[in-house]
Amino acid sequence: MSSKLNPLDLYDIRSELSEDEIIVKDSVGRYVDEKVIPLMSDAFEQHNFPRHLIGELAELGLLGSSINGYECAGLNSVSYGLICQELERGDSGLRSFVSVQSSLVMFPIYTYGSEEQKQRWLPIMARGEAIGCFGLTEPHGGSDPSNMKTHAKRDGEDWILNGSKMWITNATIADIAIVWAKTDEGVKGFIVEKDMPGFETQEIKNKFSLRASVTGALFFNNVRIPEANVLPGTSSLKGPLSCLTQARYGICWGVIGAAQACLNEVLDYTQDRILFERPIANTQTIQIRMAEMGRQITAAQLMSLRLGRIKDKDQLNPTQVSLAKWNNCRAAIDIARDARDILGGAGISAEYVSIRHMLNLESVITYEGTETVHQLIVGKELTGVNAF
To answer: Measured between alpha carbons, how far is 58 from 60 in angstroms, rounded to an integer?
Structure first.
């Protein structure tokens, strides 16, 4: 006789995880249940990023967790995915913070930086003593990073940086920004420190999404950057795009957590909500809708696990990440929207999580490549024709 299935893990993905991966998932999951979920509704409502969590995230080894050495945990890719899943089950804003710190700031320093840059920045970032942000997107550029206007020119042994970046997570709380700019020698990455003259940040307020996350703009007015702050290992768009692949991978897992939170909520709600003398969970309409949620979550879990195993074999093709980012974000936002609808009038209340996840996912499905961009990446892979 078969045992009852876990409604949030219908294919028993847990049984496919190693002992170490299970420990990571369970420890982060407990932390999210105890420390994150209780405060996220207020943080979202008050437009406040809970900065006091940064030190706790660092103590758990969640910052730069996939990096070997430099006081980082050296976990595998599946473990990093599980971290993102559990964090986003709490809130997309918290997962975004860890994604940016780990995949968009520490990763490029680790991959393209000098040994001096690694020694200077990676340990203190792993400890949460320095915060980073990633400057690629520009106001007019959006999905076309090759259209960037930010530029840097040599001036003796230094560089002079001018331009601006938009929609930058962690912008106003960051100690450093990894800024990508056009130069006469290609697209280069610069480590811009917050106290450098001519570097300013501005927070973007009045958001209806990712309210528990800091988002802002970066401005560079003749910022003098020493050669020691230039990432020496890359001089093309492949540098920042490889960082985006890392971040997109984490998103593929993260949105599963948001979807699970929404399904879990409606599973409970529909048992207690009585209409026409029976729980609405006893109706075919509601069961079909929740079954669809279970189907989509299961497909996303299987795709992400396979993606992680491929990544850990160092056989990853960026198109595979695009396919999962497209599939999983679409699944998660559809689940969140339908969960909100099943909750009826209660669904618009901050007392329930579905509306918050739904609003957050409007950003998550857009950043790190819109759904259309990832569809076109897959289309190019299938046909060999660039239709951008």
So the answer is: 5
pLDDT in tens, 30-81: 999 999 999 999 999 999 999 999 999 999 999 999 999 999 999 999 999 9
Contact 289, 342 (CB under 8 A): yes
Q: Name the class of domain 13-126.
A: mainly alpha
List the chain domain ranges: 13-126, 132-229, 238-383
Q: Look up 203 and say whether it is catalytic.
A: no
Residues 358 and 259: beta-carbon distance below 8 Å: no
**Residue that has been written with the tokens 């329930």 in this structure:** 352
Is the pLDDT assigned to residue 1 strictly greater than 60? no
Assess whether the region 13-126 and the region 238-383 belong to the same CATH fold.
no
> Has this prediction a pTM greater than 0.85?
yes
Instruction: Give the pair of three-digit tokens for residue 161.
Output: 């940086």
Of residues 292, 368, 371, 381, which has the active-site annotation? 368
CATH number for 132-229: choose from 2.60.40.1510, 3.50.50.60, 2.40.110.10, 1.20.120.550: 2.40.110.10
Q: Could you tell me the pLDDT band of residue 102, with boundaries at 50, 70 and 90?
A: very high
Residue 85 tokens, joined? 């899943």
Architecture of domain 238-383 in this structure: Up-down Bundle (1.20)
Let me know: does 200 contact 219? Beta carbons within 8 Å: yes
Question: Percent of the chain at pLDDT above 70?
Answer: 99
**Beta-carbon contacts of residue 229 (< 8 Å; ≥ 6 apart):** 117, 190, 191, 192, 193
Q: What does the angle CA 286 – CA 292 – CA 293 come to, to the nearest 5 degrees? A: 90
Neighbouring C-alpha atoms within 13 Å toward the C-beta of 150: 29
